[in-house]
Description:
With 389 residues, this protein is an alpha/beta fold. 41% of the residues lie in helices and 15% in strands. It has 15 helices and eleven strands. Bound molecules: pyridoxal-5'-phosphate (PLP).
Amino acid sequence: MGYKLETLALAADRDVTDEKSVAPAIHYSAVFKAAGSEEFAEMSSVPQHPRNYTRYGNPVHERVKAVMAELEGTETALVTASGMGAIATAILSVVKAGDHVVGQTRHYMSTTKLLDDMLRRFGVEVTFVDQTDVIAFDRAIRPNTRLIVLESPVNPLLLVTDIAAVTEIARARGILTLADNTFASPINQQPHRLGVDIVVHSATKYLGGHHDLTGGVICTSRVLAEQIWHTHITLGAVLSPMDAWLLLRGLRTLPMRVERINANAQALAEFLEAHAKIERVFYPGLRSHPQHGLACRQMRGFGGVVAFGVRGSYGEAQRFVEALRLPLNAGNLGGVDSLAIHTASMWAGTMSAEQMRAADIPLNFIRYSVGIEHIDDLKSDVAQALEQI
Ligand SMILES: *Cc1c(COP(=O)(O)O)cnc(C)c1O
């Protein structure tokens, strides 16, 4: 379309439907009627038809797809009921028993489970490599390698993968690449422009941006999208028309929100790094991040997730989170409200402190997802909470 991202977020879906309303209509219908048997035959046979049966497609889906494809720079897109719906559907569409997949030692937890547990159960071999080591991806490739799965930046240390270098290796060998771009959002990073074939998102995070919907997006070529769509309608992780509409509403302000969140997170990370009660801060926008140079090359901004360790152990970190007044104590990320969690608490129900130490789970770690509040308020809130430990 030739517009900048800010304009595309508003205008990319204008001609997708012929609605006269300025605000998009919510097509809350499971099924659409045909004008006659000829149209019915067409609706039933055209893949991804937007007015046939909502599991197959829906006019609101069509709008979200148009916006997301423009934002990621891909030919087209698909929407799903969740981020995991997008990741599982895309991966299961392109691998079969006997194939080999390369993934990273760190992924979103359910992605790791999908690769490590489910794929193996269906006869797919999987190798996990250190994402900071490009050569490790190359070395892991086998004659039957079909797919390389990337995610950057990734929890818990916000490590970064050299996306262009890995896709170059993959392309030379005819291997597909898939990248989870949830943490960056297309405003900060466009993996397809770095060579990735399939870009996936949890729309539950930045894309929706208001902690209200669960959704996923797959951005790719027309050919791959049609292949993935056939798996999608079989697995059935269908985004509801209402959530698609909320997602569309969220996308309108994505560029603005991400810009503000980038600025807030950078300022908060620098503030924390200079504070005596903080042991270490992990944020790709900091010079102290081990891959800051790479992050600057492939990202336009560094996102809203800041990870840090407070000086102390389990108790201090827990007290710090409890003393915070602004961020809510909740485990999502990428929305307008700041959220903070003491990461070790996630395992507290099932593991002792000793077991966590043995499993390399840092006890003093905080994951802070920065929102769009005023930065002065976020800083003074963190300062008062640090006073209390
Ligand atoms: C949240 C998340 C997912 C899963 O998304 P859901 O919408 O919760 O299914 C996948 N990848 C990343 C990086 C995430 O943060």
